[in-house]
Protein: Fibronectin type III domain protein
Organism: Cohnella lupini
Amino acid sequence: MRGRMRWPGMMSLLAVLVAAGGAGWPSKDARAAVGTLTVNLSETSEAFKNPNMGFRPSVYIGSTNFPDKEYTSIYKHYIPYTALENLASDSVQKIKDWSNTAWAGLENRNLKVVPRVVIVYPNVGEYWPDGIPHTDTAQRWLSDTYKNRMIAFIGKLGQAWNNDPRVAAIEFGLFGNWGEQHIWPDKFSDNTDRIPLSMQQALGDAYVNAFPNKKVMVRYPDTFVGYPFGIQWDSFALPDDVSGGNGEIARDTWRTQINSGEVAYDWGDQSNLGGSPDGTLGSVNNTNYVIDWIMRTHTSSLGWIAEYNAGNSAVAAGATSMQKKLGYRYVINQASYSGSVQPGGTMNVAFNVTNKGSSPFYYNWPVEASLLRADKSVAWKGVFTADIRQWLPGTDWNLSTKTYNNAPASNAVSGSFTIPSGLANGTYTLALAILDPSGWKPSVRFANTNYYSGGRTPIGKVGIGGDPSDQNLGSFNSLKSDNTLSYNLTSGAYDGGLSGGGGGDTQAPTAPAGLSNAGVTSSSVSLSWNAATDNVGVTGYDVYRGSSLVGTTAATSFTNTGLAASTSYTFTVRAKDAAGNASAASNAVTATTSASGGGGGTASYEAEATGNTLAGGALAGSCASCSGGNKVGYVGNNSGTLQFNGVSAAAAGSATLTISYLNGDASRTAQLSVNGGTAVALTFPSTGSWTTVGTVQTQVTLNAGNNTIKLSNSSGWAPDFDRIQVGTSGGGGTTGLLLDNYDSSPSWPSNNDLGKWTGANSFLNGAGVIESGALKLQYNNNGWLGSDVTQSLTGYTKMVIRVKGAAGGEQSHFRIAIGGVEKTLAEFSGNTVTTSYKDIEIDLVANAVNRNAPGQLTMTFWHGGSGTVWIDEIRFV
């Protein structure tokens, strides 16, 4: 048979297109003569389970029953708060113990959960932990006691679940009825029922910090704007809540954030839903109606509808149609590979894949090539350098044609693998798989007819040390009926190869420890840290200011330059290795640059610093608009006191003390005592809200060396305190009011550093992008930026904009409006924009700006200019 080409039976399924190296099989003594083989693969007609997608039933309070269902790989789990924590002193281990009991064995069934922790589940129960007052149905959700308890609890959830492989994603929960961030039918005092902005910021920041490795979903698309959260539309496809679906579409975050939901059958117009899961799926029209919403919103999983009766043939047909659209559906179209490889040689593998579903897969799980023995056991394996999160579906769903107007892309993946020299000669089956990193087992299944039980997609035969004996892949298995897949609760390093050679290093370095402030100037902060360790070797460190990468170094020190004077910045560091693995973040350190000009600079001390003394009821809590992200409240009234320790002075004498505070009430007072001396009373005017930071200045006399500064109020409440800043001697002057320094904290667009609304639109780069800690705006006779101020600026005389341009001279390209005055930047300042950052001052008094009621700062770019500017910071001084 060597004289002519012969393809045994199963190759009719593969249709070999190219067999480089000659028209017939060469002799056994030839080396790698088969060359590259290319095959076409077929999409399966089956619907089947895949991780983190599809029909998603719910497990309700009091139950830990996860029944088998034909397409289910993911469950929502409603969890009462008190099952995880009752006392504030309850440990993280209590959450872990509960999880291990409730979710025992899920890994063996390849099931994962989306937990939603609830405090109030109407008509079922309320699960308030000890210590949180909750008699007032509205006020109980707004107290600082509740907020601070939730922030701490979310941190515990993160420690328990952020790296738990059983957890597919997190539903925000906690706040409001059903944990849906509303209190309907009750109302707050402002006649709304949604979670207030200040609580969104506090709890949203807590979830971002607690769950860097898990996706988080919130109930409403108009809440938590700017946060990296997906949507749980729990009135999915209901005609009475079209605004919810349209809001989800407009939010347009599905490429990186999960959209999920629940078809509501207990209220509203059911004419397109049939009133029940069977009513939906048993009707072609109703099924297609829901599929239209799935495709428009790029939804990956749906609940309640998952409770259908699979024994009804019409319903089962509808479920099959929906499962094939719901979530991702990866189809390999074509693959090419080296037909013959010598031991120690290189095997090239390439394939292209299309996502024919509605959503991406949201975690970076590895794609593996393997060589299988005749019994389908693995003889060799290695992972590609590929990111399956980028395998996106189409966009712009057409209701008439039932297709995306913009078809999904064909994603090309390729790799070159070094075959071990010790691999025995013979014929092997090349297979592809997507692995769950928890155990490195095949998990995500391709939607192709080529399928072996256990999760691998066979491509063709490869000869090691000679030509393959045949291309017969044998019989294939059903995807739907395969229940053999699983994952592990723990996982070590990947033990296979890596595309491009190497040992497949997937172990991240340890987090750098001991990050500290090594010194500041008016425009720079120097950092140092302890070296990280790695199983192979650390190659460098990435330095972050807020969430922005500001530099990379191979050393254990770094200086960030080009900063604004008298400004607080927060830094973290991550280590990385040669394989691209990055560590967790180091400890965060906050440093404040010194004042510009002469006079010795300013030292900053955070209220929440661990070296301070908090007595009585004084309590540290999260504050998105505060320096360092925290503040201290409950000072006064209940004997609560805050004492700053270690306030340093180079020499004895007078110093300017600037106190940053928050006061959403009427004017409050506090007593200030230095080094235990006689207290003096200070007045703290309202800042307009409990998320807006203001400053008060006073002169204090310090001793040389370390000093203490104590704040108290024996007869009433003091304001909340952010930090103090101390100048070495003299009259001082204001430290300024920061509007925004564009460090992605809070994220852009969302709120400015005053906790007020801010946004932009119609630029060539949308709302602009944060680049190296500055807002980059690309414009061509269009674009606007707006930022609420809504507080008095009578204590400030100038607005300072730190800005640079791509070409220089952009000062006449845009107009600025504030306090009833509108002019170009050039007209306001008489200054020019250059290609390096420059502080341009606008004299508010000379320009007759209404400082008492500035209202909103706006910038408009539709005045004939085109170019690019970077705004690094806007502040008032």
Observations:
- Residues 602-735 form a domain with the Jelly Rolls fold (CATH 2.60.120.260).
